Structures are given as structure tokens and as C-alpha cells.
């Protein structure tokens, strides 16, 4: 286990983007949790949505006075092959779990759990990777409350993977899901719902001055910001369906001849499929100079792309929540997204973007074309998008929801 070094964050810095009442509520909750120690555990320090959330949540909690640590698992590729199968299986389709894979999972999770040498009151395990720590933690920290934070969409899990994971989820004290519909998909003793959120002060989301935008735009050549640009930002993953987005773009080129497409993603530390999917997408797009497949760009570069794109697409087949939607909306860019996971919670159809069925390539093409052809409509949707994210999907609100769950648990166990 190792401890990442998240950037400094002060709750006072969020005063410009959230209501005063919300900040006061956070201060009250922090008082309730003043004597509690909290540990978050996940499997990657960079490259995934969970890591992004923790890089903001952990320092802000400490600034509020809630003693909060973050540890990342030490594991090799053989372990991540297992957890990728679990991830995919819980979302409906994963590689079969062999006895050797199960043994690898148990060995690595038990070893990492044994490496935690401090006592905590609340231990939050994020996604399937650290879930196998539960039995060991029950012995080393019997007084701790163990919470499983599920960021996936488990509504149609493969039976084999569900049964394996259920052996552990039934042992946790509480679970937190991203949508109400997820609560009944996996057996847990009790659960809550907390919507994820974006950090408006992070490099990927903060407002940028004109000079920074100009410099980063130049670095993104050969993309031209003088021609229509459609962008999808997501990990290179089968569930993100970059191939479907590419097909929608190809249909669009007959109607908007100068349109460009940017497919942008990072390589998560715990995702062994990412490089292979990236290479397949790049090969499929290689014959079109107006398709730009980009990876491992800086957060500021992604910020500029989302900000300067005319339309953002999120054509996921499955999605735990899909915060890239809120990222784009926060920058006043309308989004065309699939009607899966948390995407329809963020997109109000016809108000800040459009939702389509996950297999509706033609629908994506039609909606994107309409937005590209109607500047006023696109601007109106973008303005409402900014306001909708401010009200519902910024970090202070998620913190209120999380700390309310923690405070209730601490009060009940006192």
C-alpha cells in the first residue's frame, strides 16, 4: 500500500461556486466527525474517475477537520487482469474467473489489508479491487466500519462474477451506490445513494485565462478550432464505445464535410485493457486525418478540448455515472449521451444536451448535426448546462452527502 500526495484544497475556495448554506452544513458535519479517522482505499492514483474524486475529496475533508487518509493498493498486472474481469462481469460481460484468478485476488487483497498498520473508524473500499480486504480487516480492525463504494453499473451482472463479489459485499457494514436502481443489484447489509461530482477547482475543470487556452490550443494541433469539432473524453474501454462514436462521425461527414472528431482518453493504472483498445481505435481511425485519437494529455489540455469543442459525445454502452458529462456541461458545451447509468441524471433532454439509446448511432448523428447547425440552440443548451452542474454535480454537494452517511454511522456506533 502506498499513499498518494493529492494537491492542497481549502473548502473556502469553493465559496464562489456553491451556496453558503451548503458550506455551513459541511462545517456542522465535520464537527460530528471530529473524533473519527477515515481511510479511503482504491487501486490507482492516476488515470481513473475514482482517483480523480479522491484527489479532491481527501484534502478537502482534512481541511474541514475530518482526519482522512488515502491508500492505493500495491498489485501487479495479473491482479488487474482479475479485477478487470470483475469490473466487466459486474457490468454484464467479463472473462470467466478461474480458480487461479480467484486465488490471485485473495492473495493480493489479503496482503494489502495486512499492510494497513494504523487504526481507523471508517474504511471506504472503492470498487471491486480492494473489496477482498474485508475479511482481513474484520480481524485487524474489528471496531472499524467498512463501507463499500461501488462506482459501477451492476444492474445486469454476470452470475459468476456476482456470486464471487457477493461473498465479500455481504460482509461489509454498508455500501454506497451512485444511483438508487443500483441498490438492489448486489447483496449488501444496508446502503445509501451518493451522486459523484466534479471538482470545479481541478485543472480539468477550472476556468482558464485566454493565454492558457491559446497555448494549449496550439499544442493540440493538428486539431483546428476554426472547423466544427466533436469530442469524446473517456478511458479506452469496450464500454465507452469509441467505435460507435467513430461510426456516428463517419455518417456525419456526409452532412457536415469539415467536421472533426477527437477521441481522448487516459491510461488508468489499474486497467490492462486500455492500451489494446486505444490501439484498435487508432487503427480504425488511421485513414482519416480529421479523426484525432489522443491519450495521456494534461488535464489542462482536456479542459481546453471540452471547452472549445462544439459538441461532446458520451456514447457509453454501460456507465456507472459518467462524470465526463458534467465536466463538459460545466464548460458550457452541450452533450449527446447514451441513456445508461448516470448519464440521463446529468443530461436533461433538449435543455443541456440530448440522450439517445446506447445502440442508436443514427440518433447520435442527428442530434450532433442539429447542434452543429444551430449556433443559438447550442449556446442556450451550454448556458443551461453550466447552471445544472452548479446546482447538482459539484464537489461540495457530494461531500455533504458522503459526510452525512459517515456521521450517521459514527452516531449509531458511538
TrEMBL record:
UniProt cross-references to InterPro entries, sorted A to Z: Glyco_trans_1, Trehalose_Metab_GTase, TreT_GT1
Domain Glycosyl transferase family: 226-386
MF (Gene Ontology): glycosyltransferase activity
Pfam families linked: Glycos_transf_1, TreT_GT1
GO biological process: glucose metabolic process
Amino-acid biosynthesis among keywords: no
Keyword field: Carbohydrate metabolism, Glucose metabolism, Glycosyltransferase, Transferase
Annotated Trehalose synthase N-terminal domain residues: 40-182
Quaternary state and interactors: Homodimer.
Name under which the protein is recorded: Glycosyltransferase
Organism, as annotated: Natronorubrum aibiense
Amino acid at each position: 500500500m502506498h499513499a498518494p500526495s493529492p494537491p492542497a484544497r481549502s473548502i473556502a475556495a469553493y465559496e464562489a461556486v456553491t451556496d453558503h448554506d451548503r458550506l455551513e452544513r459541511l462545517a456542522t458535519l465535520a464537527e460530528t466527525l471530529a473524533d473519527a479517522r477515515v481511510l479511503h482505499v482504491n487501486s490507482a492514483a492516476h488515470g481513473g474517475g475514482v482517483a480523480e474524486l479522491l484527489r479532491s475529496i481527501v484534502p478537502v475533508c482534512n481541511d474541514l477537520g475530518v482526519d482522512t487518509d488515502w491508500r492505493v493498493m500495491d498489485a501487479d498486472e495479473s491482479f488487474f487482469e482479475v479485477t478487470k474481469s470483475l469490473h466487466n462481469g459486474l457490468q454484464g460481460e467479463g472473462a470467466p474467473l478461474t480458480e487461479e484468478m480467484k486465488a490471485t485476488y485473495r492473495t493480493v487483497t489479503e496482503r494489502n489489508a495486512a499492510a494497513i498498520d494504523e487504526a481507523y473508524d471508517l474504511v471506504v473500499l472503492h470498487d471491486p479491487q480492494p473489496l477482498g480486504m474485508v475479511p482481513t480487516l474484520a480481524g485487524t480492525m474489528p471496531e472499524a466500519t467498512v463501507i463499500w463504494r461501488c462506482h459501477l453499473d451492476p444492474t445486469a451482472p454476470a452470475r459468476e462474477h456476482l456470486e464471487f463479489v457477493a461473498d465479500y459485499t455481504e460482509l461489509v457494514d454498508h455500501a454506497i451506490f451512485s444511483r438508487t436502481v443500483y441498490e438492489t443489484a448486489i447483496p449488501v447489509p444496508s446502503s445509501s445513494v451518493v451522486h459523484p461530482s466534479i471538482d470545479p477547482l481541478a485543472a480539468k475543470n477550472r476556468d482558464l485565462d485566454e493565454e492558457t487556452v491559446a497555448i494549449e490550443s496550439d499544442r493540440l494541433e493538428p486539431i483546428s478550432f476554426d472547423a466544427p469539432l466533436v469530442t469524446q473524453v473517456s478511458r479506452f474501454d469496450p464500454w465507452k464505445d469509441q467505435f460507435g462514436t467513430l461510426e456516428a462521425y463517419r455518417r456525419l461527414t456526409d452532412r457536415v464535410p469539415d467536421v472533426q472528431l477527437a477521441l481522448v482518453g487516459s491510461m488508468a493504472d489499474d486497467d490492462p485493457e486500455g492500451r489494446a483498445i486505444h490501439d484498435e481505435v487508432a487503427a480504425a481511425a488511421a485513414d482519416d486525418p480529421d479523426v484525432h485519437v489522443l491519450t495521456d494529455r494534461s488535464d489542462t489540455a482536456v479542459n481546453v478540448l471540452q471547452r472549445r469543442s462544439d459538441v461532446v459525445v458520451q456514447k457509453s454502452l454501460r456507465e456507472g455515472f459518467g462524470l465526463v458529462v458534467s465536466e463538459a456541461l460545466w464548460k458550457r458545451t452541450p452533450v449527446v449521451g447514451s441513456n445508461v447509468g448516470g448519464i440521463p441524471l446529468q443530461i436533461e433532454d433538449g435543455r443541456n444536451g440530448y440522450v439517445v439509446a446506447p445502440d442508436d448511432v443514427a440518433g447520435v448523428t442527428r442530434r450532433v448535426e442539429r447542434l452543429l447547425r444551430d449556433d443559438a440552440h447550442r449556446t442556450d443548451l451550454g448556458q443551461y448546462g453550466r447552471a445544472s452542474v452548479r446546482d447538482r454535480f459539484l464537489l461540495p454537494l457530494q461531500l455533504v452527502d458522503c459526510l452525512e452517511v459517515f456521521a450517521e454511522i459514527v452516531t449509531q456506533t458511538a
